[in-house]
Write a structure and sequence with these properties.
The structure is a single chain. By secondary structure, the chain is an alpha+beta fold. It is about 15% helix and about 25% strand. The strands form 4 sheets. It has a 4-stranded antiparallel sheet with strand order 4-3-8-7. The longest helix has 17 residues. The radius of gyration is 26 Å and the shape is flat. The termini are far apart. InterPro entries: Fcp1, HAD_sf. It catalyses: O-phospho-L-threonyl-[protein] + H2O = L-threonyl-[protein] + phosphate; O-phospho-L-seryl-[protein] + H2O = L-seryl-[protein] + phosphate. It is found in: Nucleus. Its EC number is 3.1.3.16.
Length: about 130
């Protein structure tokens, strides 16, 4: 491969053809209220073109926040955020409890019970008085 510099400060390769830059369209991995957070494209405007519905190619299919259903991210982005959150919780030695609406415990951390047996905390709810 012989690279030589021409007068216009560009590089020329005399023995090969190399791709220096490949442009790709935005996959819209994060969408908030119909707007792509990466490129800013209004995805709601693409819904109808020439009377036919045109669905934009967006990888954002996972709703991240229950109270904000308009915020959607791609499954890859959701997995990455989940891993980062899990690493942060382990690093800060925090315990997350996921509780159902009727206060049923659904999930806790991955730590073994034997390791935490001396740190068990019991919580008793007082019965509500009507």
């Amino acid at each position: 491969m012989a690279w030589e510099r021409s007068e216009d400060t560009s590089l020329n390769c005399s023995t090969c053809r190399a791709v220096l830059v490949q442009l790709e369209g935005c996959s819209h991995p994060v969408v908030m209220k119909g707007l792509c957070a990466e490129c800013g494209q209004d995805l709601t405007q693409l819904q109808s073109k020439n009377g036919r519905p045109q669905v934009p190619l967006s990888t954002a299919t996972v709703s991240m926040v229950h109270s904000v259903p308009e915020l959607m991210v791609s499954s890859e982005q959701a997995e990455q955020l989940g891993r980062e959150d899990q690493q942060r919780l382990h690093r800060n030695r925090k315990l997350v409890l996921m509780v159902d609406l009727d206060q049923t415990l659904i999930h806790t951390t991955e730590q073994l019970c034997q390791q935490m047996s001396n740190k068990v905390v019991k919580l008793h709810r007082k019965a509500s008085v009507s």
